[in-house]
Amino acid sequence: METEITIDELWKRKFYDCLAMEFSVPSYFEVHHLLVITYMLQTDGYSPEYFPEAVRLLEDFLYEGVCSKQFIKTNQYRIENKKQRKLNQFDWEIDILSISTLNAATYCRDVRHWAENVLHVIKNRKHPAIHFL
Questions:
Q1: Which is nearest to 118 in space by CA: 55, 49, 28?
Q2: pLDDT mean across residues, the chain
Q3: CA–CA gap between residue 17 and residue 115 (Å, rounded)
Q4: Residues with Cβ within 8 Å of residue 32, at least 6 apart in sequence
Q5: Are 91 and 56 in contact (CB under 8 A)?
Q6: Residue 59 has pLDDT above 70, yes or no
Q7: How far is Cα 110 from Cα 31, in angstroms, rounded to an integer?
Q8: What pLDDT is recorded for position 49?
Q9: What distance in Å separates the CA atoms of residue 41 and residue 67, rounded to the nearest whole number?
Q10: What are the backbone dihedrals phi and psi of residue 80, each rounded to the nearest 5 degrees, phi first?
């Protein structure tokens, strides 16, 4: 009997594959901070309280030149959403399955493009958990 794989499971498998690649080949690790926060945002991995902060952090990573070491020094907390994830709360244009792992340059470009797209979708939809300053 064949079991149907859900999109949640496909995304999770791809995420773990990307992590394995990043930790195996250092040139892929360059976008690790973008991979993790984008995956968590797209899979509803942050609590409603932390969601707006995570969106701002992704903006800082992408456009303000903040690096993950700076963030870790100033923010020693992460709030993960332990309840059932709501993958369909946004109309995602692309997802983690769009990332190519053929070479580091393509991988880094794809992760950055995915992160920018997720940020764009979130910022252009009215979401009750997002209160931007």
A1: 55
A2: 83
A3: 17
A4: 22, 68
A5: no
A6: yes
A7: 10
A8: 86
A9: 18
A10: -95, 145
User: What is the Cα–Cα distance from 29 to 42, expressed in whole angstroms?
Assistant: 20
| Chain segment 25-58, per-residue pLDDT in tens | 999 999 999 999 999 999 989 888 889 989 998 9
Q: Which residues pair with 46 in a beta bridge?
A: 80
User: Model-level pTM?
Assistant: 0.76
Percentage of the chain with pLDDT > 70?
77
Q: Which amino acid is at 83?
A: K
Q: How many CA atoms lie within 13 A of 73 on its CB side?
A: 5
Round to whole Å and give the CA distance between 122 and 117: 9
Nearest by Cα to 45 from 56, 33, 36: 36
pLDDT in tens, 72-86: 555 545 445 555 556
Nearest to 54 by CA among 63, 46, 62: 46
Rg (the chain; Cα; Å): 15
Burial class (CB in 10 A: 0-12, 13-18, 19+), 77: exposed
